[in-house]
Amino acid sequence: MVERRKPIKVNEAIERLMVYSVKGNQEMIPIEQSYGRFLGEELIADHDVPLFDRSPYDGFAIRSRDSKNASRETPINLEVIGEIGAGSVFEEPIGEMQAVRIMTGAQMPEDCDAVVMLELAKEFEEDEKSYFQLKRSFHSGDNVSFKGEDTREGTVLAKKGTYINPGVVALLATFGYKHVPVTKKPTIGIIATGSELLQIDEPLQPGKIRNSNAYMTQAQIERAGGQAIYYGQFSDQFSVCFEQVKNALEKVDFLITTGGVSVGDYDYLPEIYEALGAKILFNKVGMRPGSVTTIAEINGKLLFGLSGNPSACYVGLELFVRPIIRTFLHSSQPFVKKEVAVLGGDFPKPNPFDRFVRADLTYQDGKLIATPSGLDKSNVVSSLASANVLILLPGGTRGYQKGSEVKVLLIEDQMGTTYENFNRK
Amino acid sequence: MVERRKPIKVNEAIERLMVYSVKGNQEMIPIEQSYGRFLGEELIADHDVPLFDRSPYDGFAIRSRDSKNASRETPINLEVIGEIGAGSVFEEPIGEMQAVRIMTGAQMPEDCDAVVMLELAKEFEEDEKSYFQLKRSFHSGDNVSFKGEDTREGTVLAKKGTYINPGVVALLATFGYKHVPVTKKPTIGIIATGSELLQIDEPLQPGKIRNSNAYMTQAQIERAGGQAIYYGQFSDQFSVCFEQVKNALEKVDFLITTGGVSVGDYDYLPEIYEALGAKILFNKVGMRPGSVTTIAEINGKLLFGLSGNPSACYVGLELFVRPIIRTFLHSSQPFVKKEVAVLGGDFPKPNPFDRFVRADLTYQDGKLIATPSGLDKSNVVSSLASANVLILLPGGTRGYQKGSEVKVLLIEDQMGTTYENFNRK
């Protein structure tokens, strides 16, 4: 007897799920390991930038009032009484008609208020003293970068939950974060089920296929910012499977199972959820692939029952697991970025349900083009390698023509988006 | 006296540099660690996909000839003599007017040549035997996925040098790669120079700034696919600096120095190159920032002398170091992807040289929009955190208006592009 399940919409599934999202705790890690992690607290400027008035050029620091009468017709000569390398401070007084050679980035001497660029100064020596000739006047502040003009001490430079890219690393270093507060990665257990699955290193056998979902989901979890823990694959016996799920659940923040969520005779997951006393949030979603995606909750901990079909498993992870991982990491934009693209090939299949199609993203004259992978069936496997977007084709249509405008999910993007933007039609 | 240097164009600099690119060797790593690495050899299908004729649906495997006369008016009854779960093989003979229940993905029995979907079969029991009624005929091959129809054994599924994303991981698992051949990461030494630099955990001092380049470049190298080795920062003494460069050079595939390449009195790098006997490929590039970028070669090993200015250092790494790293990894698309975008804000500065401007990439109605970071100067520091493209503004212009079409380098993209595309105007 086939169990009847009532499909719900993708957005309703997400809303039911997000009720159980949780946020992770902080840990401190060395800055050298921070790339690709997520900030565990606000990044705050601990000092003004620049920290002091400084010269943005190689040149001469002067007192601008000395240059008041300088012109092409009436050049003036200023005496060079010293030099300031980057990192040095010049503490001697600078008198009338005196100047100091200054390097890019060096701190302005207290008595000076303008910088003459090197190319405007004609240097010469006289009586064993150094001078330069100047043919124009300068105002106070000319060519000076002022303390705090880039950023003020106390400014929030990046929010908690920000993805740490190389630019963020530069800021962390600038503001002295030798150790960086990041959110601990959520641990996500993976259990593969399916009597057709071979271990990756087993010889091929009639009727069987190798388990690819376990490895694919590990990579997807890593991309999303989580820590995958693989518990192995289980097939035949309900009791073994049940024990594995129960044990794994105690050790992880979230648990993913692949396979076993259909209504076939070998699909144990519904039984396991029942035996665990888990509350099923939904067990059918009006989408393809992945309609049998089942998500349950027990004591506030989420169990993701992803389909055993690799495409469905892939889509289910990006739609349902990724926002839970990113919310754990305190991101305010935990959803996959959703944008508009031009369809790069016909998609003639009628579409009663929302469909997510793996596709290649390219660009043409500044526009996004998304071309479904594997339109040519002989190429369906290899095209998965380059797929970097999911095209979302809403249900209730009779297919799409090349050139149509479609929505795409940018699965390689790390910035993400809010639920509001994700859910926008 | 200011040394005269002759600037060369960015593309000429790249061409001089790429002459010394080298390719790395292979290593085997567990598939669980392969995400984000680069394939060290072609990924080849070691078997047909599907491996056997299989059912794409839950249903009944039949001999199509038995259904020849079935219609709404003359339904037929087929006897169900067994079932085939995914992963099982049904080896008994199937006689006239007999069928077998078959699960999604299961291997077709030898005697059958079509699959009836579950919803078209009206099941019933009679005399303790199972039957279903069928009201239409099927052709041989209906609803069967044939051996090899997705991909043929021996097909190249991904080229050497491909970035391993989760889709590639799925393919590797499908084809039994428990260990994955990847190219060893190139090791890239980093030495920071500059008498103005404080260690990251030193208290602030007048005239000094914290060393951010060392950490930023480590993150950029990691993003590009290399392995950074930080040798520390050196400032005051030529001899110390020289020894450090010399020692580091022996241990790494490439060496980056930050700072010390200007013509200032404290810029030792030109002297160090000379003392090493290194050949300078160029020491001035017609670009901003980063005009003092200097690249040298000794015994075929590249020394990247990046500017000490953080923006210039960042740009120099993406333009010059990244393609060397990606070529080492056997990528056929080692350059940063270059595309067209709409300028999201005015850039009023006249532009005698090619200028690379860090910017935020957004999307609007399927178009790329690039908005320069830090147009508002008070925001210049924090905007670095979100910058994910470099806008390329060609030299010889008087500024750009919002809405202009510009070229952008997609620094977060992992696919890359060829030199031919990178160099296209």
UniProtKB/TrEMBL annotation, chains A, B:
Pathway: Cofactor biosynthesis; molybdopterin biosynthesis. SMART domains: MoCF_biosynth (SM00852). It catalyses: adenylyl-molybdopterin + molybdate = Mo-molybdopterin + AMP + H(+). SUPFAM superfamilies: MoeA C-terminal domain-like, MoeA N-terminal region -like, Molybdenum cofactor biosynthesis proteins. It holds the Pfam family MoCF_biosynth. The keyword Transferase applies. Its EC number is 2.10.1.1. Its cofactor is Mg(2+). Keywords: Magnesium, Metal-binding, Molybdenum, Molybdenum cofactor biosynthesis, Transferase. Residues 189-327 form the MoaB/Mog domain. It is an enzyme of class 2 (transferase). It comes from the Bacteria. Belongs to the MoeA family. Catalyzes the insertion of molybdate into adenylated molybdopterin with the concomitant release of AMP. This is Molybdopterin molybdenumtransferase. It comes from Aquibacillus rhizosphaerae.
